[in-house]
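Holo prediction. Input below; ligand is glycyl-adenosine-5'-phosphate.
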Amino acid sequence: MNKTIEQIVSLCKRRGFIFQSSDIYGGFSAVYDYGPLGIELKNNISQLWWKEMTQVHENIVGLDSGILMHPKIWEASGHIGAFNDPLVDCKQCKSRYRADEFSENFKTIKWLEIQCPKCGTTGDLTEPRQFNLMFKTNVGPVEETGTEAFLRPETAQGIYVNYQLVQGSMRMKIPFGIAQIGKAFRNEIVARNFIFRTREFEQMEMQYFVKPGTDDKAMQEWKNKRFNFYHEKLSVSESKLRFHEHKHDELAHYAKEAWDIEYEFPFGWSEIEGIHNRTDFDLTRHQEFSGKNLSYFDQPNNEKYLPYIIETSAGLNRMLLTVLADSYWEDKENNRIVLKLDPRIAPIKAVICPLVKKDGLPEKAREVVDLLKPHYKVIYDQQGSIGKRYYRQDEAGTPFGLTIDHQSIEDNTITVRHRDTQKQERISIDQILRMLKDHI
Ligand code: GAP
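Structure of the complex:
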C-alpha cells in the first residue's frame, strides 16, 4: 500500500490526534501538541508499556525523577563533552545539515567538492562543527556562573542517580529494573518526519541492573522481549520490524553493545527503540563525580560490585507514529480511510449511535453509554447518516460501532458493526460489556 507521511499528518490534524505547536502563530518547529484522540492513544500506549514493565515483571519498579537535575550529572554522564551532532552550514543559502545526512562516513568527505542540496552551490559547505544537543537554562532570577542547568536529554540519568535509594527502599535484589516515562529535550539540528524527530519528546526507559558477567544473557533476553512487544502488544506488522546492530564506530560513548529496533516507515527503515549494554559506565562515572560509593552488596554471596546496566530505551512519540503508520489503511473498495488500531490502544473503544433522533432511540442509546462509560472511553454520536458516523470513527480507529434501532426498544438488542470487516451482528445489550472485555 502506498501511504505517505503527509496522509498521516493530515489525518492526525483532521481527527484531533496531533497538531503543530503554536499553530495560530505560524507554528513552532519540531514541537507537536497532542489533541483529544492523540493523548488517549499516547496514554494507552504508555500504560501498556508501564504495565508490561512494572506489573508483569515483579522485579521492575517505577520512578518519576525531575527534568532538571544537578548540572554535574551531565558532566559525569558525558553529555556535556560528547552529546554532539556534527553540523555543516552552507555559506551561500544558510541551510544547515547534519554531516551524517551526506554519508555515514562523513569524516572522509571533502566538503569543498560537495554541492548544497538546497541551493546547488558547490564549495560553500563548511567543515563539520560539533554542536551540543542539550538545552541550557538558568536556575534562579539571575543568569550568572553556577546557575546553569540543563533540560534532560534522556530520562536514564535520573534512574542512575536514584538507583541506590530505590534499591534500598524497595529491598530489590539483583537482577532488578527501574522504569521511567518522561519528557526529554534535544536541540535537534534537523528535525523532520513529523513526530519522528522533535526537540521535545517522551521516553520510556527501563534500566536493568545485573551482575557483571550475566550482562550478555540479559541483553539477549531484553532484545527478544522488546521486539515481541511491538507485534504482540501493539499488533505492529512483524514483517516491518527488524534489528540493526551498532557497529563499532556507531556505538554511543557509554555502550559495549547496542541494537536498534527499526520500523519501515513511509520514509524508510528508522530506529524506534534502542537496547544497550551500558556496562558499569554510568555508575562508575557517578561514583567518581559524586564521591559516593554506589556499589551493590550481594548479601548471600557476601560480595560487593558495581552492577552492569542493560537499558531499553523507547521513544513514546515514535512508538505512536509506528502504530499510526502501521494501522493506516486506505480501503479503496469502500472509499474510506481506516486506522486498524489494536482495540487495546484505540483512543475510543466504541461509538454509540441512535439510528434516528426520535422514537426513544436517543434515550436508549444514552443508557448504553451510561452502561459502558465507567469501563471504557466511548462516545455518543447522533449527527449525520449512520454511514458517515461510522466512517468518521473508522478514521479515528474506533473498533466498534453500536447502533440502536427500533428493534432495540422491543428486544433490548443492539447492532455491533466491526471496523475492519464492516460485518454486523446483533447481540443483547446485556452482552455488550462482555464483548468489549473479550477484545480489549
Ligand atoms: N538513554 C539512551 C538514549 O536516550 P537514544 O537512542 O538517544 O538513547 C532512545 O534515544 C530513543 O528515544 C530513540 O530510540 C527514540 O525512540 C527516542 N528519541 C531520541 N531522540 C528523539 C527525538 N529527537 N525525537 C523523538 N524521539 C527521540
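The longest strand covers residues 268-279. That is the main takeaway for now.
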